[in-house]
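User: Sequence recovery, please. Input:
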């Protein structure tokens, strides 16, 4: 096991899946949407800071890994974005 917690997130997703009995476990991160850019653009030109952030799934349990990893969930898709709303974050 690595000392860097990020290196262990895939194993964490698998552990939760195995021990909770969930259908799938996904770990994602809020990120700005990406823009298409020219080759000579600056290092932040690809970040669309004018639109709401998306959730990019980076880790999943083994039987969902190929399906979920690197997929993007847009605001309004599913209920995942609701956990990042001010109402949810201040209530907890």
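Assistant: Recovered sequence (92 residues):
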């Amino acid at each position: 096991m690595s000392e860097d917690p990020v290196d262990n997130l895939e194993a964490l997703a698998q552990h939760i899946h195995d021990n909770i009995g969930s259908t799938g476990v996904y770990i994602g991160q809020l990120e700005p949407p990406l823009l298409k850019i020219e080759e000579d653009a600056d290092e932040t030109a690809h970040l669309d800071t004018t639109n709401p952030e998306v959730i990019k799934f980076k880790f999943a349990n083994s039987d969902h890994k190929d399906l979920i990893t690197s997929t993007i969930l847009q605001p309004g898709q599913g209920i995942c974005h609701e956990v990042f709303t001010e109402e949810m974050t201040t209530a907890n």
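Residues 5-35+44-91 form one domain.
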